[in-house]
């Protein structure tokens, strides 16, 4: 097959491309330029899409003996990922930009161009597996990225390859070293790739501006502090609330509600964070078909952690999902994804579908 290997400049995508070559595919490497002003160097594990990353990807392609190109997707990335991220925070949500990037850039814009150019599939360095068309968790549970891939449709998955999902990360680094790839010990990227400073509040503040409001106690309705905008808060947050005095019972307070219309942030106790029911919209069913009835599953509401057994019910002809939890979850924020898994202890959990959390 003709395979387009998305090469970020990191070790995972490098080994993914190498394995595609080993499998006998006709492979072409491509690095996505996603920043309108890429820096010359990244700062350790922060940032991405730098000139250094493009250079690292090119050197790997040279070693593998495959053609290599840089495609400029910066405008599309800004519109579909960064601008959407900022708008969601301004609306009191807590989005995951990796979901948007996978949905709209890597497996939409990139895949569409690849197919138009005659490629059969796009290979990436994501830690996930495709088994008989089913999206499954990676072997390395600590690195599993099936959560951020759950937004992909059956058609998109049919054009995807995840060559490293069957291997632990430590072995991927060792393999890269054996292949003589200089990225073998390159640090993994952390935090949000387009915020290299790691200061999300400052990034959002510079784009949203000051929208003052109050931090209010959930039980008494008493105003406890002022803030500069709801974009500085997320459900479950404990630190940085601006509250000077402790609660009457001496227990910590957490963000339990965000109302962008009134710019009000509500805080309460840990017990106030318990969620037993979730409604999700923008549903995607991985198989391509809406389940005919309710079903048992495990739901995951954050990229790392936030799992609970549940019963899910498609509503509105499958466009939305009602999820009733068997045990409570905390820190459930609007804008995040609720990903549904079928447990398969013998061969990794299977992604059944997902939706954007609209209410909890």
Write the layout of secondary structure elements.
Layout: E1 2-6, H1 11-22, E2 26-33, H2 51-64, E3 68-72, H3 74-90, H4 97-116, E4 121-123, E5 128-131, E6 134-137, H5 146-149, H6 154-157, E7 160-161, H7 169-178, H8 200-208, E8 213-217, E9 223-227, E10 254-259, E11 264-268, E12 275-285, E13 295-300, E14 307-315, E15 320-329, E16 337-342, E17 350-359
Parallel strand pairs: 1-2, 1-4, 2-3, 4-7, 8-11
Antiparallel strand pairs: 5-6, 8-9, 10-11, 12-15, 12-17, 13-14, 13-16, 14-15, 16-17
Q: Could you characterize the architecture of this molecule?
A:
Catalyzes the 2-thiolation of uridine at the wobble position (U34) of tRNA, leading to the formation of s(2)U34. Belongs to the MnmA/TRMU family. Keywords: ATP-binding, Cytoplasm, Disulfide bond, Nucleotide-binding, RNA-binding, Transferase, tRNA processing, tRNA-binding. It is a single chain. It contains eight helices and 17 strands. The chain is globular and about 65 Å long. The protein has helices at about 10-20, 50-65, 75-90, 95-115, 145-150, 155, 170-180, 200-210; strands at about 1-5, 25-35, 70, 120-125, 130, 135, 160, 215, 225, 255-260, 265-270, 275-285, 295-300, 305-315, 320-330, 335-340, 350-360. With about 350 residues, the protein is α/β, with parallel strands linked by helices. Among the domains are: about 1-125 and about 165-185, HUPs (Rossmann fold, 3-Layer(aba) Sandwich), CATH 3.40.50.620; about 210-270, SH3 type barrels (Roll), CATH 2.30.30.280.
């Amino acid at each position: 097959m003709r395979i387009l290997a998305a090469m970020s400049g990191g070790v995972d995508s490098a080994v993914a491309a190498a394995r595609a070559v080993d499998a006998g595919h006709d492979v072409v490497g491509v690095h996505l330029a996603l920043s309108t002003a890429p820096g010359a160097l990244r700062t350790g594990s922060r940032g991405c899409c730098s000139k250094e990353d493009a250079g690292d990807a090119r050197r790997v392609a040279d070693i593998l003996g495959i053609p290599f190109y840089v495609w400029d997707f910066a405008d599309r990335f800004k519109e579909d990922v960064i601008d959407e991220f900022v708008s969601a925070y301004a609306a009191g949500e807590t989005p995951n930009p990796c979901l948007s990037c996978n949905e709209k850039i890597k497996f939409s814009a990139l895949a569409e161009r690849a197919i138009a150019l005659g490629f059969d599939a796009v290979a990436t360095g994501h830690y996930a597996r495709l088994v008989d068309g089913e999206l499954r968790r990676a072997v390395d549970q600590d690195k599993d990225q099936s959560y951020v891939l759950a937004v992909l449709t059956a058609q998109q998955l049919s054009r995807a390859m995840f060559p490293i999902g069957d291997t632990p990360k430590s072995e991927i680094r060792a393999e890269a070293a054996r292949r003589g790839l200089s990225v073998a010990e390159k640090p993994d990227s952390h935090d949000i790739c387009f915020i290299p400073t790691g200061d999300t509040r400052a990034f959002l503040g510079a784009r949203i501006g000051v929208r003052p409001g109050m931090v209010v106690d959930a039980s008494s309705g008493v105003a406890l502090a002022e803030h500069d905008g709801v974009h500085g808060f997320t459900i479950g947050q404990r630190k940085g609330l601006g509250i000077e005095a402790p609660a009457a019972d001496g227990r910590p307070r957490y963000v339990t509600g965000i109302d962008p219309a009134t710019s009000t942030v509500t805080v309460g106790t840990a017990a106030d964070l318990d969620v037993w029911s979730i409604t999700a919209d923008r549903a995607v069913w991985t198989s391509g078909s809406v389940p005919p009835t309710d079903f048992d599953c495990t739901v995951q509401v954050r990229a790392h952690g936030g799992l609970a057994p549940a019963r899910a019910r498609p509503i509105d002809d499958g466009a939305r999902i009602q999820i009733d939890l068997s045990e409570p979850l905390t820190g459930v924020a609007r804008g995040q994804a609720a990903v549904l898994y079928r447990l398969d202890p013998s061969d990794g959990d299977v992604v059944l579908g997902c939706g954007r959390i609209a209410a909890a």
